[in-house]
Amino acid sequence: MEKHQFENRKLVIGGIVLTIVVVYIIRLAFLQMNKEYQNDADSNAFLNNVVFPARGVMYDRKGKVLVLNQPAYDVMVVMRDVRDLDTLDFCRTLNMTKEEFDKRMETIKDRNKNPGYSSYTQQIFMPQLSGEGYSVFQEKLFRFHGFHVRERSIRHYAYPNAAHLLGDVAEASPKDIEQDDYYSPGDYIGKQGVERSYEHELRGEKGVEVLLRDAYGRIQGHYKDGACDRKPVPGKNLKLSIDIDLQRLGERLMEGKMGAIVAIEPKTGEVLAMVSAPSYNPKLMEGKERGKKMVEMQRNRLKPMLNRAILGTYPPGSTFKTSQALTFLQEGIIDEETRYPCSHGFRFGRLTVGCHGHPAPLPLGPAIATSCNGYFCWGLYYMLGNRTKYHTVQQAMTTWKDYMVSMGFGYKLGIDMPSEARGMIPNAPYYDKAYKGSWSGLTIISIAIGQGEVTLTPLQIANLGATIANRGYYITPHVVKEVEGGHLADSLLKKHHTMVDPKYYEMVVNGMRSSVIGGTCRSANNPWYEVCGKTGTAQNRGHDHSVFMGFAPRENPQIAIAVYVENGGWGATYGVPIGALMMEQYIQGELSEASEKKAKSIQERHIEYTDER
Fold it and tell me: How many CB atoms lie within 10 A of CB 132?
């Protein structure tokens, strides 16, 4: 009996010991597998110091530096290591108040504002400490346990120009961090322009220094003599397609005005200049004052942050007539000798679309040169009313729309910049809904002259000029010419052919050349090279908009351009002279003395804008 009890006692004791061992094994396994505990243990011994890569530099097409980097310093904190802090001394050193200190510390700990917060990891306390501030802080850093300085670079813009195109860099938002695990709180990311669209190329790859700490949190040096460190990989440099001298001239000419200028090299699709007015100095986006400056500009009623070149949608006015001529020619509605009447405009019953005085009837070339409204209204009327070629007005309208789309209208062109607008090209279902199925060419006749529902961006108008210069095709406009060690996306090098035969483009080119020799673009003529152009005076609730679209030289074109000046009046008032000066600057490399005087005169002519414009 006693022996049996002894055996039972041994089994019980053995079971208890075995249970304890199993519990310890499970607990140890749990601790080893649990990343949170592992990270906490590592954090006690190591400090993983992120080393930021140099962001890629940007150059213009001639190699001039546009955007570079300059050193900045972030004050970092590991909250669990903060102890015995003389808060007043700390605040004096960083030139801040006790209230500011408390607010920053509370923000760091707020998991709603700082979702990735951990008391064991580095948190950004103060970004972009100045060089002078860094020197003062570094001298006293030994007193402030838990704080250290992290060096990084910030953007510096070499010219006060091209703000909309270049964009800017700012702290990554929670959404940015959620979408891409490359970013952590306090990191910087491209926010607008090229900085945004080429963020992955520009940012590079982060490095890390694994630093060893003692029991008091003091840095003892690199773990394993740096064997575990990873060097950062610098971002890729970009050569942009813009000519900064041309860009600067464009911004000069648009001072005191609202609108845009876009210049394109036809044979490549490279954007030579992209001006949006009013603009701002990109240097305002440098440093800690960025947020304050941005709020001020967002409240400005003239919207200086809006990139009108790709986001502004406007009626193209008479520049659009070139696309109508091409469509009518290809569809056999007209030929080069077709003449239409114009009795101070298009008249049909009680419907009148006015036109300025000129000889009539005219064939195609002179109709383009004089910008005859009557001619193009009759062309659209006969196209949409042709029941032999098209069974219904809807079929005719769909054909018309397809031509417009093939010319790059109605959809985004795909430029390598964020937030491009698509403009508006109406179609048959749109008018069926608007007029309950009862409409005709007369109902919508104003689209023939670039009015009514038709809207384009200045980029699309410039691209029309490039397409005509190329006699029937365009390459997707783009603002980056080369990526260091890489290549451009195939979509940016694609050649897009329109639905119109090249022979018809030559007829339109003849008309545009006649417009410069003796038509509405006469002030663009010069003795050095042949300019081809088309004016536009786009109707508006207030003063009309002044528009110009053209290219030069006529053969082997080097530049196509669109100028859009809001409330500028006749196309010849602002559009033509600005376009002519831009072409001269690019082709000749500089302005003549006489042209420089014209440029100064235009620069000094400001337009008064009201909220009712």
Answer: 8
Q: What number of residues does the chain have?
A: 613
Cβ-contact 550, 579 below 8 angstroms: yes
Give the H or E element holding residue 347: strand 345-348
> In this structure, are residues 556 and 587 in contact, taking their beta carbons and an 8 Å threshold?
no
Quote the pLDDT of residue 9.
Answer: 65
Of 540, 526, 613, the closest CA to residue 576 belongs to 526
Other Cβ atoms less than 10 A from the Cβ of 235: the count is 21
Contact 154/128 with Cβ under 8 angstroms? Answer: yes
Phi, psi of 27 (to 5 degrees): -65, -45
Structure tokens at 380: 């659209």
- From CA 298, how far away is CA 599, in angstroms rounded? 30
Q: Which of these, 585, 488, 574, lies nearest to 528 by C-alpha position?
A: 585
State both tokens at 337.
Answer: 């000798």
Query: Per the omega criterion (within 30 degrees of 0), is the bond before 278 cis?
Result: yes
Dump strand ranges (E) for 203-258. 207-213, 219-222, 238-240
Alpha carbon distance 320, 314 (integer Å): 12
Res 366: pLDDT: 96
**Dihedral, 472, 476, 480, 486 alpha carbons, nearest 10:** -110
Between strands 58-59 and 238-240, the pairing is parallel
For residues 204 and 53, is the Cβ–Cβ distance under 8 A? Answer: yes
256-297 pLDDT tens trace: 999 999 999 999 999 999 999 999 999 888 877 788 888 889
Residue 440 makes CB contacts below 8 A (sequence gap 6+) with 384, 385, 393
Please tell me the distance from the alpha carbon of residue 468 to that of residue 462, in angstroms, as a whole number: 10
**Cβ of 601: how many Cβ atoms within 10 Å?**
10
H or E stretch covering 46: strand 46-51
CA angle 171, 126, 41 (to 5 degrees): 90
The span from the CA of 524 to the CA of 243, in Å, is 21
- Residue 402: burial class (beta carbons within 10 Å; 0-12, 13-18, 19+): middle
The per-residue pLDDT for range 163-197, each reduced to its tens digit, is 999 999 988 888 998 899 899 887 889 999 999 99
Token duo for residue 497: 């052919």
Q: What is the pLDDT of residue 61?
A: 97
| Helix/strand/coil for 276 | strand
- C-alpha separations of 338 from 7, 15, 320, 364 in Å: 119, 108, 19, 7
Q: Each residue of 16-43: b (16+ CB within 10 Å) or e? A: eeeeeeeeeeeeeeeeeeeeeeeeeeeb
Q: For the chain of 613 residues, list the mean pLDDT of each consecutive stretch of 10.
A: 57 69 66 50 63 93 95 87 90 91 90 78 83 85 86 89 95 90 88 96 89 62 72 95 98 97 98 97 82 87 95 96 98 96 91 88 95 96 96 97 98 97 97 94 96 97 98 98 94 97 98 95 95 90 89 98 94 95 97 96 92 56
Torsion of CA 433, 434, 436, 437, to 10 degrees: -80
For the whole model, what pTM was predicted? Answer: 0.86
